[in-house]
Amino acid sequence: MGRTELPTDALKGVHVLLVEDDDDSRALLQTILQYSGALVTAVASARAAVSALERVKPDLVLTDLSMPGEDGYWLIGRIRTLPSDRGGKIPAIAITAHGHPHSVDRTLAAGFQAHLRKPVDPWELARTIASLGLRKF
Questions:
Q1: Is 82 within a domain?
Q2: What is the pLDDT of residues 43-53, one digit of tens each?
Q3: For residue 102, is it within any domain?
Q4: Is residue 2 included in any domain, yes or no?
Q5: At a CB cut-off of 8 Å and minimum separation 6, what does 7 contact?
Q6: Could you give the CA distance from residue 13 to residue 46 in angstroms, rounded to a whole number?
Q7: The whole model's pTM is what?
Q8: Residues 6+ apart with CB under 8 A from 2
């Protein structure tokens, strides 16, 4: 049985803070998320994500791990030091081209709830977000 098209309301009502330094990857992920009904705040760096968290209250952080300057590990470290009411316990998903078992273990130990490998499959992304209790479809 083949996959059907991802439902346009699969992530309805989920606000995602998307952190990706590559313009094309950020645009693609933003399109996938918005197509699925998510509200997306997209930024190009970990520092911009920290600033965004002062202005918006997303339900989820979706971040690349390998970025110039401060990376995704730096970002999750900063987020986890915040008080709960400022996003310190927000669910976070790491995305990376690195999928070695030690990479997955490292991301989970750092404070992420999930680790997805690029290129990100839209269905896998939606299922992972749903598994965090943010949306069921």
A1: yes
A2: 999 999 999 99
A3: yes
A4: no
A5: 36, 137
A6: 24
A7: 0.93
A8: none
Within a domain: 70: yes
Query: Is the dihedral angle over the CA atoms 53, 113, 40, 27 positive or is it negative?
Result: positive
Specify the residue for token string 């995704």: 72
CB of 107 within 8 A of CB of 80?
no
Contact 84, 93 (CB under 8 A): no
Q: Which residues contact 136 (CB under 8 A, 6 or more apart)?
A: 130
pLDDT at 2: 45
Radius of gyration of the chain (CA): 14
Instruction: Provide the domain limits for residue 38.
Output: 15-131
Q: Residue 40: what pLDDT?
A: 98
Six-digit token pair at 63? 């971040």
Among candidate residues 129, 127, 119, the one with its CA nearest the CA of residue 24 = 119
What b/e sequence results for 97-127 when a residue is b if at least 16 CB atoms lie within 10 Å of its CB, and e otherwise? eeeeeebbebbeebbbbbbbbbebebeebbe
Q: What is the CATH number of the domain that holds 103?
A: 3.40.50.2300
Query: What residues of the chain score a pLDDT lower than 50?
Result: 1-2, 136-137
